[in-house]
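=== RUN LOG ===
request id: a7f3
mode: sequence -> structure
chains: 1
length: 84
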Amino acid sequence: MKKWALCVNNEGYPASLELRKVYAVLDDEDGERMGCIRVIDEEGEDYLYPSSMFVALEVSEPVEKRLLTLSTFPTHPAQAGASL
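=== RESULT ===
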C-alpha cells in the first residue's frame, strides 16, 4: 500500500502543488525529523515540503486502486500524483 497526502496549503509553491489534490508520499526519515514530507509534485519530481501543507490520508484498497489508475505511478514509487 502506498502513502497519500492531501494538499491543504500551496502558499509559496503554486506551480508545484495544487490545493485539494492527492499526492503520493515517499518515506523520508530525515525529512520527517525536519517537519517535512516528501511528495511527488506537479513536476513529477519528489521534493520535501512542510508537513503542515498536507493532511495524511488512509485510503481503502478500492480508492488506492483508483488513485493509481489516475496517476502516472510507474513501477518506481517515487513518481506519482493523482487528482480525485
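=== NOTES ===
DSSP finds two helices and six strands in the chain.
The radius of gyration is 12 Å.
=== END ===
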